[in-house]
Amino acid sequence: MTALLADHVDALQSYSACDISDALLKLQVPSAGALVDLHLYTPQPATAATPSPRKTIAPASTVLFTPKDSSIVPPLPDTSLPEPNIPPGSHYADLTTPGSIVFICDLGQRTNAVLGGIMARRMKILGAKGVVVKGRIRDVAELGEVGLPIWASGTSTAGAGAGSKVHAINIPVRIGDVTVKPGDIMFCDPVEGIVLIPQDLVGKVVEILPDLVAAEEKIVQDVSAGGKVSEAMRKHRKP
Prior knowledge:
12 strands; elongated
């Protein structure tokens, strides 16, 4: 991460995921960058330094799983399945990008898990900042001991071998209207949810956030004082 990007990430800590999506909507990013229906299974305990829940904000790395039965691989939107790129004999967890939030996508979302305690421990040791799984996880109690914020669509007792296989790492992965590219900024808010900021828009998002949030605060003040929502929005929101 460059010094400038690190400064931007620090600045983003002052905002919520909803604030980020508002900025991305203004910048016409599809779905305002929202990665939906993901749940935080391992909230991190508060400390003296961070008494309130701290967001996890870092560049994304990606892992793509596909069904073991290649005849049921669902089509990727607007693209073909990328070439496999896992070196023979390697495990994807051993290839974790230090300093990243690992985004794991189980294409087709089988009923099995694609992340468990052993993989999470290895990722932590290699410097991962968190894990987001569009799919299922298991070993939830063990995951809580690892010390990483881990988000997922759901849980399963079955391991990946029951239905999924790892296909490639650090390739663009599309989820609905949102494409997660390695290096994009994942903003994981333990209260509001997850939003993805395209890497080339991070500076612009940081630039427009103060005015957007200030306008929203003025709208809240007017409505709390008995004003109409429509009038407050016309008054304070810029086109």
